[in-house]
User: Fold Transketolase from Purpureocillium takamizusanense.
Amino acid sequence: MAYTEVDTKAINTIRLLAADATFNANSGHPGAPMGMAPVAHVLFNKFMKFNPKNPKWLNRDRFVLSNGHGCMLQYALLHLFGYALSIDDLKAFRSVDSITPGHPEAHDTPGIEVTTGPLGQGVCNAVGLAMAQAHTAATFNKPGFDVVDNHTYCFLGDGCLMEGVSSEASSLAGHLQLGNLICIWDDNHISIDGDTNCAFTEDVAKRYEAYGWHVVTVEDGNDDLAGIEAAINEAKKVTDKPSLIKLKTIIGFGSLQQGTHGVHGSPLKADDIKQLKQKWGFNPDESFAVPKEVYDMYHKHSADGAEAEKQWNSLLDKYAKEFPKEHADLQRRLKSDLPEGWEKNLPTYTPSDPAVASRKLSETVLSKIEAAVPELFGGSADLTGSNLTRWKTAVDFQPEATGLGDYSGRYVRYGVREHAMGAIMNGLAAYGTILPYGGTFLNFVSYAAGAVRLSALSQVRALWVATHDSIGLGEDGPTHQPIETLAHFRALPNCMVWRPADGNETSAAYYVALTSKHTPSILALSRQNLPQLEGSTIEKAIKGGYVLHEVEGANITLVSTGSEVGICVDAAKYLAEKHNIKARIVSMPCFEVFDAQSKEYRLSVLPDGIPALSVEVMSTMGWERYTHEQFGINRFGASGAYKDVYKKFEFTPEGISKRAVATVDFWKDVPNVRSPINRAFQQHI
Ligand SMILES: Cc1ncc(C[n+]2csc(CCOP(=O)(O)OP(=O)(O)O)c2C)c(N)n1
Ligand SMILES: *[C@@H]1O[C@H](CO)[C@@H](O)[C@H](O)[C@H]1NC(C)=O
Ligand SMILES: *[C@@H]1O[C@H](CO)[C@@H](O)[C@H](O)[C@H]1NC(C)=O
Ligand SMILES: *[C@@H]1O[C@H](CO)[C@@H](O)[C@H](O)[C@H]1NC(C)=O
Ligand SMILES: CC(=O)N[C@H]1CO[C@H](CO)[C@@H](O)[C@@H]1O
Ligand SMILES: [Mg+2]
Assistant:
């Protein structure tokens, strides 16, 4: 179909909304929206299937703006197509409590699929969405019932392509042959420092071809709408490779400063906006103007989308009759509810059960629940054997052509790509039918910190199976031994860091992680064997912290996590025998969850009257919130057999006792020792 004046008007409307909103906010990025308005117009109006009245319709096409600084493009589109985003919301761009924040946030704004802005993340999210689409189709589609059959589109900029994380994910996407993924690169030769030739001169097209992508170039992304349409059509036809469309554009198209970094991140000047409006036939004295024919055109497309959803709904009704079990499973997953009774599969242990490494306990949990929780979909960053993340009968998520698995498989070979794994999990979770988990060493979760932070911010349920959680990993040494990791992720809002001490606590960690619909979890798991602790139960551990061992007339509380709790139990015996000191023991597997308990409960665990000493083989930072004294490791670890390393740092019953004696001695003259739980005001809101 030929393009007309209305198309041009629509494109210029998008450009001017971006110019007006950034001018009005006196902040923001007009350049990318003005350069990408033509491709956005063609993609949204000719290709994408969605219903603005129901932004969560399962079989919509997904769109990710990986160059999230260009979000005025996305906000303008959402408004024009009739999502619940008004002109006033555009006027409130970048103001406090608006639904149009400085970068797109999925949980704030209807129609935004994933939270982007940290460059490189969005394209990885898009890979995750495309994987989820492929997996969901392979799991639920039946002959004649293409319940899931559509595409993930992603815009990305030079910045995204420079970030290493996008290379990790793109390499995997090529291997996985994700034909439903179409990425469009805003090849405008500009980033903040100016012309990209100062730092970014590789042949990106060749690189992506080498990854196994289909790559096409559109020479004129500013005016050649038919060329853009043809490139997207061609990309859709390639079903066994992801596509990259290299779209040559001019940043800030139309502005007096077009093609320079001056339009990247600063509003245009008033007279510049004026000349744009004059040039394009808009009233120069009017802002946020939308011609009626532009609304009409876009609303027509949205009405087609609503009709497509209606037809899909009747397809789904028929599906429900023919495949009631699958239909019920799909509906349940879309609510993030877990299957009735799934938790009965969580293993429990008795004190006489053998000592087991918590990474192994984690594997047992996964093996026992995977059948009951079919949305569990995970893998490991090339540490499957060490991390024990794969149940025995698992099928790999692989393209059939590789002969290694198929798309219905639930086990992902992420390769050595922790950061992409984290970012892909965010995309997998955003799709709506999958509960993602990923395994690596705890130390290397830090490689993925950029993605973990976005999981927490955008309220994504994703699990990190983070094994080899401390100096207890032994011989691999300080390069692999986490020190600051727990402090870092405990400081991250809305992130649960679990460090279970035994089998019951490991089950508790999984229980809370899986049932918390809006919070990611990191499960820090040991390589070394841990005894089953008398008094641990799932019920107690799901409070985040509890009294493992109470004693009348106690002199001190020992507070610990994971592998050190068992050593504290031995230390308490030693203290009673050798020093006539009575120690009560608190296990604190998760700060975040403990903090959410009532003050009364927290004070019952950490009472007034006696000092508390924390024991954890990592940075002491953060423990001041719970204890008077801290025994930890504020330096790097050491390479050696794990028992020798623990001995070197004195994490032995004797070493802990030495600190306990010093604590009791130091605080004995302090009258009315107060629990650190008592505060003048609540520490968080
Ligand atoms: C991880 C990360 N690092 C740095 C930034 C800051 N930043 C925002 S946009 C940008 C330049 C991006 O260039 P490009 O993607 O080409 O965008 P364009 O200027 O073409 O709009 C940078 C460095 C960021 N958002 N994320
Ligand atoms: C959805 O995708 C399939 C291919 O995966 C395609 O055949 C179909 O036309 C698409 N539907 C719409 C409405 O875009
Ligand atoms: C684990 O929990 C179960 C059930 O609550 C309990 O019977 C058992 O004693 C606990 N195991 C340990 C080692 O405390
Ligand atoms: C421990 O507390 C008891 C009182 O509960 C006290 O009699 C005893 O002296 C204390 N021990 C030490 C070593 O302070
Ligand atoms: C079952 C399994 O694969 N175990 C492996 C776990 O990882 C360690 C290395 O860290 C191997 O020695 C085990 O064989
Ligand atoms: Mg650029």
The pocket of 2-acetamido-2-deoxy-beta-D-glucopyranose (ligand 2) is lined by residues 49, 149-150, 308 (CB under 6 Å). Residues 292-322 form the longest helix (31 residues).
